[in-house]
Fold:
Amino acid sequence: VQLVESGGGMVQPGGSLRLSCVASGFIFSSYDMSWVRQAPGKGAEWVSGINTEGVSFYYRDSVKGRFTISRDNAKNTLYLQMNSLKPEDTALYYCARRMRGYSGYESESLYDYWGQGTQVTVSS
Structure:
């Protein structure tokens, strides 16, 4: 199993970024997926989750209306479109595979594989 994120960078407040996560080594379309972030000196924080078909989406309150999660099962790719970025969004962003047979998205214990992360820095 491999998850490889890309698309991070440095942007000014109010800017946008689109993160991608390419999955391999497993049947991508069979797993719910999430984005999780970790800011310097803080614990991991779940950001958004999506079901296998890509028709149910979940977000933490602080990103609702600004972030959009999506997936392309034909391309084995997970996305996170981030708009209206704020300095508090600065973090290392990971994609993570949720274990099958569980419900919910927020707990770190639900995920069995993580990517290496891509850094997002929002600063003027």
User: Anything to note?
Assistant: The radius of gyration is 13 Å. The mean pLDDT is 97.
